[in-house]
Design brief:
By secondary structure, the protein is α+β, with helices and mostly antiparallel strands. The chain has 11 helices and 23 strands. Helix content is 30%, strand content 28%. The protein is elongated, with a radius of gyration of 24 Å.
Length: 475
């Protein structure tokens, strides 16, 4: 028998909801609530706030906020024809797991929407609920930043954006979104051979939760190859692109380059040699990586020699991956940086990064490094968002209550964890003074990549745990 959360997840998978394109899902959630007689407000940002009275005997208990985000990261395989602005997500079932067909699944954070909407059809006991579903979380937490805190009265909040069943998340990193924009000069080559260099077959993944796994970044792999063909074979870069979102480790990158015809054979050998090197380096974590070069029809005008060198140089000079581990929590990444998107627009190339740190001063240090790199190479520094860390609260009655409910159900204590990924709890903690917060969720895997998948049984167990926890909450 299909459970309520799974049924709703199937339904919302039909609704395009990439970051910045959430009106459809926002309207759907608001209408779903109103059809069931609940108050639902859509604010100017399209965040949805639903007020659900407490059940009999729970009417006068303090309200609880249930919170998640409606948007999803839109990543797909290069050979997949899919328009995220209008096409539904095609679900593929493999035993207990649900995947998408060549795209991200959107379980991050569609599971929150599914569980919250399922509660509207639930007769299980619960205190008054304030369901908060935000927009544009994945591109910089825009929706929660725009939220008017006066719309919420609760000071206990359960965030549903975690990805490991049996873990209660109690703190997270802060972050910043940064772009370096390098403007260059284009210069015609009288006689040239045009080719494309491609990096394919990488796993990719979440730039926070998976940054410590040593996954290859396709943009950096490509930059290593480009630097060699530019320096050794007189190549000029005409176009470079890679990745779709700055909070995802890019799986695929490519560059169109021009070079003297007599140098192509040597460049081809260089690329093939690089492929062997990269395959050896990533034989365990990214064994499917390929690096290729092929001739294409000539078109456009390449950048000049200096710009063609600056493009890979900027990528390779940028700090990348894990940059520091927490001194307080063993095994937790403290600071990291991810180059998620490289794109060419006219005579400029943009490099977009997701910076994360649980220590504000370390985040500032990383920003300074990127500013210096940009200044040295003549690139413009652009900052699009900045969000705070969520600090661990030594005293949390909500955490204690959820832990007791978990032990009551499963006969074992939950694990308490901190994550390097960013959650909206950092911003909500500042907006809602003295708010007691915990984050939880079902088992999700390879989020922010086309390999993303979800355990159905874990979703069902997490929902049942949520029902039990709400019924058990004390005053």
């Amino acid at each position: 028998m299909e459970t309520k959360p799974l049924r709703i997840f199937r339904e919302i998978s039909k609704i395009p909801r990439g970051s910045g394109n959430e009106k459809g899902i926002s309207d759907w959630c608001a209408e779903y609530a109103r059809d069931r007689g609940f108050e639902a407000v859509q604010d100017s940002a399209l965040n949805v706030i639903i007020k659900v009275p407490g059940t009999e005997g729970y009417e006068n208990k303090p309200p609880v906020i249930l919170q998640g985000h409606m948007d999803m990261v839109c990543e797909k395989n290069a050979d997949k024809a899919h328009d995220f602005s209008k096409d539904p997500i095609t679900l593929v079932e493999r035993g207990d797991m649900i995947y998408a067909d060549g795209t991200t699944l959107g379980a991050d954070n569609g599971v929150a929407v599914a569980m919250c909407m399922a509660l509207l059809d639930e007769s299980a006991p619960h205190p008054p609920l304030e369901i908060l579903l935000t927009v544009d979380e994945e591109q910089g937490m825009v929706g929660v930043i725009d939220l008017d805190p006066a719309t919420l009265t609760g000071r206990r909040l359960i965030n549903l954006d975690s990805e490991e069943e049996g873990y209660l998340c109690t703190s997270c990193a802060g972050g910043r979104r940064v772009t370096l924009k390098l403007s260059g000069k284009r210069e015609k080559m009288q006689i040239a051979r045009t080719c494309v260099i491609k990096v394919r077959g990488l796993r990719g993944g979440h730039s926070g939760a998976q940054i410590d796994q040593g996954l290859a970044n396709s943009a950096r792999v490509l930059a290593r190859v480009l630097l060699s063909v530019v320096k050794e074979h007189g190549a000029r870069v005409a176009h470079i692109s890679g990745g779709l979102k700055n909070n995802a480790i890019p799986r695929e990158s490519e560059a169109v380059v021009f070079m003297p015809p007599e140098n192509y054979s040597a460049a081809e050998k260089t690329v093939k040699n690089f492929e062997k090197i990269i395959k050896a380096e990533y034989r365990v974590i990214d064994p499917g990586v390929t690096v290729s070069i092929e001739q294409i029809k000539s078109g456009g005008t390449p950048f000049d020699k200096v710009t063609s060198w600056k493009i890979p140089a900027l990528i390779l000079l940028s700090p990348d991956g894990v940059l520091g581990m927490s001194a307080d929590i063993k095994g937790l990444v403290e600071t990291s940086n991810n180059l998620g998107v490289v794109q060419t627009d006219g005579d400029a190339v943009s490099f977009s990064y997701a910076l994360r740190s649980s220590v504000h001063s370390k985040k500032d240090e990383l920003v300074t490094a990127l500013k210096l790199i940009g200044h040295t190479l003549g690139a413009e520094y652009i900052e699009s968002s900045d969000y705070p860390a969520w600090a661990y609260a030594p005293n949390s009655p909500l955490r204690d209550s959820l832990a007791a409910s978990y032990e009551d159900i499963y006969g074992a204590k939950p694990q308490f964890t901190a994550i390097h990924a960013g959650l909206e709890c950092g911003i909500l903690g500042k907006k809602l003074n003295d708010c007691d917060m915990v984050s939880l969720g079902p088992n999700l895997y390879d989020v922010h990549s086309p390999d993303e998948h979800m355990s159905v049984s874990s979703l069902n167990r997490t929902y049942e745990f949520l029902l039990k926890a709400l019924a058990n909450l004390s005053d």
